[in-house]
Structures are given as C-alpha cells and as structure tokens.
Design goal:
The complex is a heterodimer of chains A (169) and B (200). With 169 residues, chain A is α/β, with parallel strands linked by helices. Helices cover 38% and strands 18% of the residues of chain A. Chain A has a six-stranded parallel beta sheet, with helices on both faces. Chain A starts with a helix and ends in a 12-residue tail after the last strand. Chain B is built from eight helices and eight strands; from the N terminus they run αβαβαβααβββαβαβα. In chain B, the strands form two sheets. In chain B, strands 2-1-3-4-8-7 form a six-stranded parallel beta sheet, sandwiched between helices. A two-stranded antiparallel sheet of chain B has the order 5-6. Classes of the chains: A alpha/beta (169), B alpha/beta (200). The A-B interface holds A 17-18, 41, 43-47, 49-63, 65, 79-80, 82-83, 86-89 and B 28, 30, 50, 52-70, 87, 89-90, 92-93, 96-97, 183-184, 186-187, 190-191, 194-195, 199.
Chain lengths: 169, 200
C-alpha cells in the first residue's frame, strides 16, 4: 500500500505544518509518518469537530493544517464547519470511506452513504479517488485547492483503498 | 438543584476582561460564544482578538491551533462555562500537546447567558477545574476574588502553560457590546496584524 506515502509526500510539498487526526485504520501509515516528522505537529483529537477549529486557529497563526479522519467522523463536524464557511478559512480533509465496499458493519452505512452530500451541504468541494496510483496527484491538487486557491475541500478515499475489516468473522 | 450563589460572586466579568486584556499588549486572544465576546469588545476591540460568533465548543482548539503556529507568542482563550462544556474533550487534546504558551480562562457564571440565563452544569455538580486536572492539565485552578486574580495574573499571561483557570464571575445582565460579525474581516484583520500585509 503506497498511497499513504504519496499523500505524505504531497503534505511535504505543500508545506503542511499541522496534522489533526482521529486514529483510523485506513490512515494508520500516514498518521505514523506525520507523527515521526519533527517538522509537523501531529494533533490527536477526541472528536473530529476539534480538528475543524484547530485548522482555523492554525491558519490565523500562519500555519497550514490538514485533517485526517474516517467518514463516520464527518457528522461530528457539521456545526463547526460553519466557522470555515463564514470566515472563508482554507480547509482540507482526507477521509477514508466506510459503507462502500465489503462493509461488514451496518452501523457504518448511514454516514458512509451520505458523506459526500453532507460535506457539500456544509459548503465543501468534494472529490473522490479510487485508483491507488491517482491518490498522490489528487492529494496534491486538493492541497493546492485549499491553501493556494483558499477553498474548503475534502478528498474521499474509496473503501477499496483500505484493508477489508471483518473482526475475524 | 441549581444554585443562585452566582448572583453574589464578587468578580464582575467586564472588569476581569479588562484586566486580562490590559495585562500585556501582545497576547493573542480567542473569545468564545458568546458573553466573553462582548466582555472583551467592551474592554477594547482589537485586531489581536478573534471573537467566535458561533462554532460553540471550538474556542479551546482554535486557541491550540494558534498556539502551535505561534510558539513565541502568548495565546489566551477566554470563554464561558457553557461553551467550555460543549468542547470539554478539547482539554485532553490540549493536555497531550502541552503548549507552553497557552492559557485557558473560563468565565464561569454558572449560566447560559445568551439563551436566558439557564443553569449550566457548573451551577449544581460540575467542577471544571477538577475536570481539567483529570484530563491532564495539572496547572488548573479556580479564582474567586480580585486578590486571587491579581496574584495569578503574571502566571496567566506569561507563565509556562498550559494554564487553566476557572474565574467565577457574577451572574448579571449586561449590555451587549458587539464586535464585527463579519468572519472574513475578523480573520483578515487578525492575520494582517500578526503576520503582515503579505498574509492577506
């Protein structure tokens, strides 16, 4: 699985300073790379909405902050995204998807099947990538969209990209 | 049962805001929804204050992002007890990061001021200082009098963080002194003052 390293390389190229995350199996490699990088501040959150406010504070101080989370966390962010929309803060989230491909847990379906619409209703530009070779270029493009184009955006990483979860059943 | 004790707390929130704002002229301040916005605007509207008109529960993590980005500047979050309760997990997030330059002040009047002065959980059973300590911010305390505030001021504005103080303030009706509600303006004026014209 090379794509997490491709996203990490895109972070370095874009000059990402802060990485806010909620631990996630799909993002494990990328999160560990960010934690190991002394030039990045990796911030573990208790809830995804904290990351939205963190991103805004980072930008006020001149830092670029990105968010890593799972689709189930999107619902936790909705009111906090009003901060991004109202103040037009740059924002970019990399979201590993559930509820799409060999999903074994029905509790993941309600949020996983409505992630894109939910984010669009909250004012974000949403793109999705399924081909592992395309993750790096898409990551670079969405980072550019956020920090150069000053937009709020999310890149959905299709569930085909992450290991199938079964809890051994 | 809700207690009415807060009506007799000696500290007045507008005076506390003035004291905190004037203690140093280079502190970067994030104020939370809603009364602390009006307190700090009354004390002196400034580009180094970012007032949150919404995003309830986000003041502390917004301050954390700013503190991590500006490690050589003091960052102060001033928010209310209701706003703090809504983002209570963010205190654990701050504790793990342990930024030396961050101070969190909770103006605790034991009320939801914007919605009709209904009791918050601190009016009966909840103790935010103990909560902060339990979530990992060891340097946490409660301030109830002007003397205690005067004694703590240097540490709150220049001591090693993270510093967390609950300031028990009187529950009282006050005039609304409103900052700009234009979020883009508030963001741009803050960045321009801190980072210069190139940040626009």
């Amino acid at each position: 699985m090379e794509w997490p390293n491709d996203i990490y390389a895109a972070f370095k190229e874009a000059g990402v300073d802060q990485v806010a995350y909620v631990p996630d199996a799909g993002h494990k490699v990328l999160i560990n790379a960010c934690i190991a990088d002394n030039d990045m501040k990796a911030v573990s959150l208790t809830s995804e909405e904290e990351g939205v406010a963190l991103t805004a504070g980072a930008w006020l101080g001149g830092d670029k902050c990105v968010m890593l989370m799972q689709s189930s966390g999107v619902g936790n962010c909705i009111n906090m995204l009003s901060l991004i929309e109202t103040c037009r803060f740059p924002f970019v989230a990399f979201i590993t998807m559930r509820g799409q491909w060999h999903e074994f847990n029905p509790w993941q379906m309600p949020m996983g099947t409505t992630t894109k619409q939910t984010l669009e209703l909250a004012g974000l530009l949403v793109e999705e990538v399924e081909d592992p070779d395309d993750v790096g270029p898409q990551a670079a493009a969405i980072l550019h969209k956020a920090f150069v184009g000053q937009q709020s955006a999310a890149l959905l990483l299709h569930q085909r990209l992450v290991p199938v979860k079964t809890f051994g059943k | 049962m809700m207690s009415d004790r807060a009506k007799d707390f000696p500290l007045r929130r507008r005076d506390v805001a003035k004291t905190l704002l004037n203690a140093r002229d280079d502190t970067l301040i994030v104020t939370g929804l809603g009364s602390t916005n009006w307190d700090f605007t009354a004390a002196g509207d400034s580009a180094r204050i970012f007032p949150l008109w919404g995003a309830m529960g986000g003041a502390v993590t917004m301050g954390l992002g700013l503190a991590l980005a500006q490690p050589d500047k003091r960052v102060m979050v001033a928010t209310g007890d209701g706003e703090m309760l809504m983002g209570i997990g963010s205190l654990a997030t701050v504790a793990v990061q342990a930024p030396k330059n961050l101070t969190i002040c909770v103006f605790d009047n034991e009320r939801y001021g914007e919605t009709g002065m209904q009791a918050t959980h601190t009016a009966s059973v909840a103790d935010l200082t103990l909560t902060a300590q339990g979530l990992g911010i060891a340097d946490a305390g409660t301030i109830r009098t002007e003397d205690e505030l005067t004694l703590a001021l240097d540490h709150m504005t220049a001591g090693d963080g993270p510093v967390f103080r609950v300031i028990k303030v009187r529950a009282e009706p006050l005039d609304f002194i409103l900052p700009s509600k234009d979020g883009v303006h508030l963001k741009n004026r803050f960045r321009q003052a801190l980072l210069g014209d190139d940040a626009l």
